[in-house]
Fold this protein.
Amino acid sequence: MRVVCHDCPANFGGTTRVDGNSVFDPAVIERKMAGQDLEIGGEGWSWNELDLIDEDAGGATRAHRDALKLLAVMLQHTDSKPQQQRLVCLDAERQKDAPCGHPFMMINDVGLTFGQANRFNSNARGSVNLSAWSKIPVWKDANRCIGNLPRSFTGTLENPVISEEGRAFLSRLLMQLSDDQLTSLFEVARVDLRPRTPDSGRSGFPTVSEWVDAFKHSTGHGVGLDIHESPAVGATSADTLAAGHVVTVEPGVYLPEHGGVRIEDTLVVTATGHRRLTNAPKDTALS
């Protein structure tokens, strides 16, 4: 959205034109979720408080809580201070200071995301940085399911341990996103207006398709009637491979300002392992 503001106060910001009007492009209108705020002094919840939720009392399951933590890892939600998280009461009718029957914890402002989490919340490094975000591994320790999210000086979440149930729950949700939905997400965010490496103009401006590809990139996918179909193959996939499945294995290397390459094989899963269906040479040299 593009907004032209007439006689706006200077502290609103924007780009001032010669006629005195201010232009905000892109501009965003926030539609706040309904509910009464329960915060005191603007303080929301910190991430370690998620572990205090009592599932037996009707609170969110560990799978749901861990899925939220893993999503924060995926987005590289570095500025995870309490002010970014909102605590609200969803009761339809509630008198002030009365107990809340349905408290709800949500991320209200993701702040710096889609970059590389860092100690001092550097904007260039931590916000909409395709070059950095596309290379960040989800797992700090995949064997122990430790997410890769260094804590910033304002943050309250650091390298969380994720249960298998949480990983599977988030994976099922993400697999439902279509290419059209992902394209709309990044188009609305105007990601093509920010260089691939924000503090390097020479890195050029990415296309929305580059962001969609980075979001979707995994080890591989199933092969069938559609171009991409289940089972998904990757660290966050909840699918189980079975004998007879045909899948791709396609590791890739991407070098900013140069390009990238994927080497793809197609395999059929057998009862004892796999059989490769493609025999392309792997020793091709590029100069």
